[in-house]
Amino acid sequence: MNVRTQIPSLVMSRLLIAAITLVIVSFAVFFATALLPGDTATILLGQSATPEAIEGLRASMHLNDPAIIRFLKWIAGLFHGDFGTSYANNMPVASLIGGRFINTMKLAGLTAAISVPLALSLGITAAMWRGTLYDRLVTVATIGVISVPEFMIATLAVLLFAVYLKWLPALSFTSEIKSFSDVLRAYAMPVVTLTFGVSAQMIRMSRAAVAETLDTPYVEMALLKGASKPRLVLRHALPNALGPIANAVALSLSYLLGGVIIVETIFNYPGIAKLMVDAVSTRDLPLIQTCAMIFCLGYLLLTTMADIVAIMSNPRLT
Amino acid sequence: MTRASASSPVSGWFGYRINPVGLFGLAVVVFWAVVALLAPRFIPHSVGEIVDTDYFGPISRELWFGSDYLGRDMFSRIMMGARYTVGISLVAVILAGFSGIVLGMIAAVSGGWVDTILSRFLDALNSIPSKLFGLVVVAAVGSSIPVLIVTLSIIYTPGAFRFARALSVNINAMDFIVVARIRGESLLYLIRAEILPNILGPVLADLGLRFVFIVLLLSGLSFLGLGVQPPYADWGALVRENIGGLPFAAPAVILPSLAIASLTISVNLLIDNLPRKIRDRSSGS
Q: What digits encode the pLDDT tens for the residues A265-278?
């Protein structure tokens, strides 16, 4: 069997699985929101509305159609860039999301740019000096960060930087950004909080990946032939751990999606997660559906990427 | 964990050896369990009673944990909060564990299309970020304690399924299963008498970690105002209520977070330091 042909077919099957998953997920999101007890039209118009008014609104919103038809219409709309109209303020969902999506991507991008180099260097060095005090400190710190809720990291960051050190404003997002230092002040707290959570995951996984490679016979061989510790890690172990490390990076970045929901709410950051949390409290279903689909798509993209990287970097397949 | 091998083991119950770090974790977990059970009997003030003339009061001899944004006793509120945080999470993890493990064993033993459909569907469920799933459900049906329990258990069923299935697949390939099949045993007998006893240890350890995730998610949802609703308050809701005290570094906002951290970190320590015998019954995944 020709091993070279295996990679494209494995990647294709992974992409196919991702596509099927996306269909199931959109199904789940739509029906979770369509199962709303009580009638959407009644909720929108309030208890005192006349039956005729409710019936009229139902007809104009196509609520009388069977759920499956509404689902297909909704999916078709998504493909055309028509995300529906917000219940709360009658604005097209697309225009509500636009700018906020970019804000969230800025936050995520900045966090990734800081946490990836930071976490990888900490994870790899911890694996390099396994069993030392440094390694134990890093391990205990990452377990600590992983096992506390994100809002606790955020509140501790506020306490430290805003209350005790008074470097940054607490719990406010300044809309007037004039200079570079304003940008720094606005983004510092959310980015620091997110970086903590994401890095902890990444340090744990990259440390495990490198440690596992360091346990292999060929690394022991290199040790016996007298290679120095940095050479052992950087030249012998690291190239073979690249796949698992890239996998770890992609998986950790998917934790961002959960993190931004809390962080944007705490710091009042005008991003898409804050928009969604607000939409949940007003029960603005079209907005929730679209935001949920964006999140699921992002999550699925990252996890699929992690899987594909793992397939591509498996030396037994190339 | 390097930590486990570093500390010297002491004798535990049932002939297992648990090291001091694990015992410490166990002690904290038992402490919170007892608090959750007995809280109404020993709290000094009723949770709704306003006892302090000032709000966000500091720690004092009368009010051990200070007072909250209305001047209510924080100590009583945190002790009562343990009931919701521990109780809801515990019920949810039991439900998730039960359904995940049963489905996982069924998938592994049946194989074929049953396995494919179950795996594909639960994997798809797993690819919805957990907080998002919680948000969508709360948006759709509103938040109440039963809804929270069911939602949390649905969110964490796929993980338990995946873990139990991976272990069961290994067991399923063993000779005694083949023998049992040839004897003509039913599916129910196979999963109950042959598979379950062989995966129980690691699966329970895995459920412990899942309990931590559930506590974190529940606290996160409550913090967003979408979890436990007033007049009840779990630890996440207590942080949310008192977030206004953050600029004054009020104990009312810090202590509930610390309570969550003490519970989750202890469970992690306990699971990490469980005896090998329980944790790695079969070395799979």
A: 888 888 888 888 88
